[in-house]
Amino acid sequence: xxxxxxxxxxxxxxxxxxxxxxxxxxxxxxxxxxxxxxxxxxxxxxxxxxxxxxxxxxxxxxxxxxxxxxxxxxxxxxxxxxxxxxxxxxxxxxxxxxxxxxxxxxxxxxxxxxxxxxxxxxxxxxxxxxxxxxxxxxxxxxxxxxxxxxxxxxxxxxxxxxxxxxxxxxxx
Amino acid sequence: xxxxxxxxxxxxxxxxxxxxxxxxxxxxxxxxxxxxxxxxxxxxxxxxxxxxxxxxxxxxxxxxxxxxxxxxxxxxxxxxxxxxxxxxxxxxxxxxxxxxxxxxxxxxxxxxxxxxxxxxxxxxxxxxxxxxxxxxxxxxxxxxxxxxxxxxxxxxxxxxxxxxxxxxxxxxxxxxxxxxxxxxxxxxxxxxxxxx
Lengths: 172, 196
Hints:
The structure holds 2 protein chains of 2 kinds. By secondary structure, chain A is an all-alpha fold. Helix content of chain A is 71%, strand content 0%. Chain A has 8 helices and no strands. In chain A, helix 2 (9-30) packs antiparallel against helix 6 and helix 6 crosses helix 8 (151-170). Mean pLDDT of chain A is 83; it is low at 84-98. By secondary structure, chain B is mainly α. Chain B has helices spanning 2-14, 24-39, 52-76, 81-87, 94-99, 106-122, 124-127, 134-146, 150-162, 166-179, 187-193. Chain B is 69% helix and 0% strand. Chain B is rod-shaped, with a radius of gyration of 42 Å. The termini of chain B are far apart.
């Protein structure tokens, strides 16, 4: 990011390639209903903010933390200004390469759908903490810094999120 | 330990969910935006948008300061009372003008002209009047300048009265009293200027 801030356009490409997938999924799964069009719009806006804020970037912390702070702030704006209707997450995309047995494939698909539904049903703070942990690879301390929360509160959110998701994965 | 195993298992399941990615057109748009942001340099002769935030307030402040300075300067230049006073009264009667010398020295002529300009600025209706020719205004200014002494004017009225030109004397006296409403005519002079 420092290189990009100083004028290297190529530095942005490698930065973008590294973070685009996790950030997109954080946004897509962070908004209720997983509205892809809304997610794409938010995702673009987040990167535009990153580009505009490049001159204010100082390498005192990790770029990932800085990026997800911008993303979190944009999602907070979204949550504040729009009440989205909660709908079940789409299950039309089956996971690939699980098992050759059709019965086990169906069972695995069913489990993943339950898991995705449980993820979408998590309270917003728990879901966001989980996504930041899984997609951005952030520890509780970083998540606390991004979401302006106490580290202990973040740890508690993560514990609850993991417990509910484990239950969804195990119980049919 | 068991908790960490559970977390690893949940993470493993999570990774089996579809790995959604942004569409390629969005990738391209973002990359293009990033490139243009670092490649765009403002042209040197174009005022950048950000700088306009102070450009206009400073320009407005300069205009206000200039306006106040000019107004103050104009107000400080008070009209010469000797010259300005006649400018506000009707033109002197013809006999006065006829009696005085037709030409006036240049310095004296220029001052009434300035006074007229000031009067024209102060009184809107007069702005529409065309400027008088320089020679005419010079003669008139000379005549007006000669009327600067109440005593001399009274003396002229007394002369008119003595010559039997009572109508002219009455008019001149009325003008005098308009011009000098506070002037107390001494009794000996009053005998000479008033109609008996």
